[in-house]
Write a structure and sequence with these properties.
Elements lengths: L1 E7 L2 E7 L8 E5 L6 H8 L7 E6 L2 E3 L4 H6 L2 E4 L11 H5 L6 E2 L2 E2 L1 H14 L15 H14 L4 E5 L7 H16 L3 E5 L3 H7 L2 E6 L2 E7 L5 H9 L17 E10 L3 E9 L3 E5 L6 H8 L7 E6 L2 E3 L4 H7 L1 E4 L3 H5 L6 H6 L3 H4 E2 L2 E2 L1 H14 L16 H14 L4 E5 L7 H16 L3 E5 L3 H7 L2 E6 L2 E6 L7 H10 L7
Parallel strand pairs: 3-10, 3-11, 6-9, 9-10, 15-22, 15-23, 18-21, 21-22
Antiparallel strand pairs: 1-2, 1-4, 4-5, 7-8, 11-12, 13-14, 13-16, 16-17, 19-20, 23-24
């Protein structure tokens, strides 16, 4: 792809876009949210028509005017949000629209044979007749990849493929990708996780502000150099942690229980500190957070805020008490995507933004606008729909509504998932600022470098129980955390 240009009303999304992919390689496509990666890929996939530029496959210029053209040329994209019909089987999804028929009847046996052959090619075991709604996320991803191979894909684009996978599933994904490399496929890998780039890719193409910046062999790059190319400046620290001066205990949790998911969990969070809650998938982290926010009811236990016992039967009660939650899935739990960013901001603040039963729109807009500059929210304006914002800016809108609500305790559940390094840095600075203002911050994260880089104390869970606390964070490493997360046995600082 050379000289790709694409503009939308008021926005020049891609300028001088460029990309070169070789057979049998993994090319990492990197850049901040809004850098132009998605637009460039949509041009390649035929979802968008470029204003200018050329696309060549095997040296021959091609015209891609529709997704059908892209598929015919062997180009397939597996998006982060899968394009599967849950009620249909894996086989039916793979051959949807291209069913094998004889005398008007679908040749189910032939499709089953081919589906099994495709899964064998990926070295995975999936029953072709299993409905996709009954498959794990990793298995659904394999169905998407099998669907691409069934369309004789030679160029495979994977958009944030590891965002919702466990570490074991990520390793399985890597094995699949390496196997496809040996079969001659060219793979474009889009990810914000730089560790994956070094583990998987041979070359990396970096974009910034809609422009092509550079392509380099991955062995020639360092993490710091990639970040500098992506954001246009060197970051002094990837994790800009400020030393905390903790105050009195704000949030105290004692013997919190809910079935086998949360068992006798106790901990404290002081004013001015960032406490990380971590553990493997299924350890009970998110279930604990849901109890604190009233999304689920506890069987027993005690929650105190500033020394006062709290009864939290619902999220409404949590908000009234001064607890705010930035949920793990901001798209479905933190925002109403079809509404404007200003309306989302106003939802938990309606008591202060209404007059005689009607929302005071001017007051709502003025309050929201006050956070646009301080949080550096990038949008076209207050009326832009939340679904149109990048992941980092969506997260900032969620944060803005809780800041306006004057929450004393803020729970960040996977605060930087799916967010680029530049936006991550800004989120970290905001967390530091909030802690300095005396907020108590509980950060749930599965990103161990983030946990070690930002936390004042680390709490580790395993099978619903609190298995350890690390207070000497500067002297700890990832293995210390994993020892506690896997078996509850390991180094625990006093």
């Amino acid at each position: 792809m050379e000289g790709i240009e694409k503009s939308f009303p008021g926005v020049r999304a891609v300028r001088h876009g460029r990309l070169e992919l070789r057979a049998g390689e993994v090319l990492a496509l990197l850049g901040e949210n809004g850098a132009g990666k998605s637009t460039l890929i949509k041009v390649l996939a035929g979802a968008l028509r470029p204003d200018a530029g050329t696309i060549r496959i095997d040296g021959q210029a091609v015209h891609i005017t529709s997704p059908h053209d892209a598929q015919r040329l062997g180009i397939s994209v597996v998006y982060q949000e899968f394009n599967l019909i849950p009620a249909l089987s894996a086989r039916e999804n793979i051959f949807l629209g291209r069913e094998r028929t004889r005398a008007g009847f679908i040749g189910r046996g032939e499709e089953q044979r081919q589906a099994r052959a495709l899964f064998a090619r990926l070295n995975v075991r999936i029953d072709p007749e299993t409905p996709c709604r009954d498959l794990t996320i990793a298995q659904q991803q394999c169905v998407e990849i099998a669907k691409a191979l069934a369309q004789r894909a030679r160029i495979l684009v994977l958009d944030e493929p590891s965002a919702v996978l466990t570490s074991q599933e990520v390793e399985q994904l890597f094995a699949i990708i390496r196997e496809l490399q040996t079969q001659g496929l060219g793979i474009i890998y889009i990810s914000h996780r730089l560790d994956e780039v070094f583990a998987l890719a041979q070359r990396a193409t970096i974009m910034r502000d809609g422009q092509y910046i550079d392509t380099q062999p991955v062995p020639n790059l360092t993490r710091a150099r990639i970040i500098e190319l992506m954001v246009g400046r060197a970051l002094e620290q990837e994790f800009p942690k400020h030393k905390a001066s903790p105050g009195p205990v704000r949030l105290a949790v004692t013997n919190l229980c809910r079935g086998r998911k949360v068992r006798n969990v106790s901990f404290q969070v002081r004013a001015g500190e960032i406490v990380a809650l971590t553990g493997l998938v299924g350890s009970g982290r998110t279930e604990t957070v849901r109890l604190l926010f009233g999304a689920d009811r506890a069987d027993s236990g005690r929650i105190e805020l500033d020394g006062r016992p709290l009864r939290i039967p619902s999220p409404r009660a949590a908000v009234r008490a001064g607890i705010g939650l930035l949920p793990e899935d901001r798209k479905t739990q933190g925002l109403v995507l079809t509404q404007s960013v200003c309306e989302n901001f106003g939802l938990p603040n309606l008591p202060a933004l209404t007059r005689m039963g009607f929302v005071a729109r001017k007051r709502e807009r003025a309050a929201y606008t006050g956070y646009v500059e301080t949080l550096r929210i990038r949008s076209y304006g207050p009326e832009q729909r939340a679904r149109e914002l990048s992941g980092g800016n969506q997260q900032k809108v969620v944060l803005a509504k809780w800041l306006e609500r004057r929450c004393d305790v803020l729970i960040f559940d996977e605060p930087t998932r799916g967010i680029d390094v530049g936006a991550k840095y800004e989120i970290y600075l905001l967390m530091n600022r909030l802690a300095a203002e005396g907020k108590a911050i509980l950060m749930v994260s599965s990103e161990l470098p983030e946990v070690l880089g930002m936390a004042d104390r680390i709490l580790v869970m395993h099978e619903g129980r609190m298995t350890g606390e690390i207070t000497d964070v500067a002297g700890a490493n990832q293995q210390d955390i994993l020892n506690l997360a896997v078996s509850g046995a390991g180094r625990q600082s006093p």
